[in-house]
Amino acid sequence: MARAIRAVASDGKAEVLEVNANLVGPARVQVGFDECGFAESFEDAVAGVRGPAHAFVAPPAAPAKPEAPPGLGPLIELLRVLLKQRCEDFQVAQKLVASADDLEAIAADDGATVRALSGWRRDVFGRDALALKHGQLALTAGRGRIELVPLPERDGGK
Predict the structure, then answer these.
(1) Separation between Cα atoms, residue 155 and residue 147, nearest integer Å
(2) Other C-beta atoms within 10 Å of 80: how many?
(3) Is 50 exceeded by the pLDDT of residue 67?
(4) CA distances (Å), origin 107, targets 92, 117, 138
(5) Residue 31's pLDDT is what?
(6) Which residues contact residue 117 at a Cβ distance below 8 angstroms, ignoring those fewer than 6 apart?
(7) What pLDDT digit, counting tens, does each position of 82-129 carry?
(8) DSSP bridge partners of 16
(9) Pairing verdict, β 3-10 and 54-55
(10) Quick check: 20 and 3 in contact, CB under 8 A?
(11) Which of 4, 14, 8 is nearest to 51 (CA)?
């Protein structure tokens, strides 16, 4: 069973923590002054740890999120305003309906596989989001709130 080792410095001494893969608990080895009975060096402490050991390795970094295609920023902001208004209308938290990544995906692709375009979320937000994206819905400010205004169908070339 592999173990990870991590060194922690405190008050001129270092502790080497041995963490078992089965999470039983850390074993501590102190490195300090020889006359106190501690190991003389960090290497001696590591050698004193029982069993196979591996250096502490940080988990791999998350892959970088791809940037939204150019020109989608304003549309994403309009979708964000729509999301805020629809969530206020239905008294539901925005986080439950759509994330920022969902808004970017919807702006980039009508067929995005995001929760906001299916089930009850589609009824609350998704259907209006697609209508706004395609110019079938407008947002206006009036009566102290954002209002949704359905627009007539546009001709294909105009």
Answers:
(1) 24
(2) 14
(3) yes
(4) 22, 12, 16
(5) 44
(6) 106, 126, 129, 130
(7) 999 999 999 999 999 999 999 999 999 999 999 999 999 999 999 999
(8) 7, 29
(9) parallel
(10) yes
(11) 4
Two structure tokens written together for 85: 């208004």
Q: What is the DSSP letter of 35?
A: G
Alpha-helix residue ranges (DSSP H) falling in 20-72: 42-48
Record the tokens describing residue 151, joined without a space: 């627009």
| Alpha-carbon torsion (94, 132, 150, 116), positive or negative | negative
Q: Which two tokens stand for residue 51?
A: 């069993």
What distance lies between CA 113 and its chain's CA centroid? 17
**Given the DSSP bridges, would you call strands 26-31 and 3-10 parallel, antiparallel or unpaired?**
unpaired
* pLDDT > 70: percent of the chain: 58
What is the pLDDT, as a whole number, of residue 33?
A: 40
pTM, to two decimals: 0.57
